[in-house]
Write a structure and sequence with these properties.
- By secondary structure, this protein is an alpha+beta fold.
- It has one domain.
- The protein is 24% helix and 19% strand.
- The chain contains three helices and four strands.
- A two-stranded antiparallel ribbon has the order 1-2.
- It is elongated, with a radius of gyration of 17 Å.
């Protein structure tokens, strides 16, 4: 976003502002999801090229996206034990921006 949508951020619909920028631009080609049928390392990779519909559904959901497991060192099969980085849930980001109430000239 190059300019403030309105003066006085309390009136800004942050979710609408964020919706103008496709989230997928900020999400890596490999993400992870929980597979409830697995025990232990239940984080399984979802690759944009191998499963475009599954990847797109996870990215489009109003949920955090798991973008890294096991500090960047998943198992040889791509699975992981622990989420170590994620892209925040869009509504949570909008709520934080609303609470922050940034004004023109501020850097966020």
């Amino acid at each position: 976003m190059t300019s403030s949508p309105v003066t006085g951020s309390a009136r800004v619909d942050w979710a609408a502002v964020m919706a103008r920028v496709p989230r997928e631009r900020f999400i890596p080609d490999r993400i992870w999801r929980h597979d409830r049928e697995r025990e232990g390392n239940d984080l399984v990779p979802v690759d944009r090229d191998a499963d475009p519909a599954g990847w797109a559904a996870l990215v489009a959901a109003d949920e955090p996206v798991k973008i890294q497991v096991d500090h960047g060192h998943p198992a040889a099969d791509g699975t992981g034990w622990e989420v170590t980085s994620s892209a925040s849930q869009p509504t949570v980001v909008a709520d934080m921006l609303r609470a922050l109430a940034p004004e023109p000239g501020m850097r966020v």
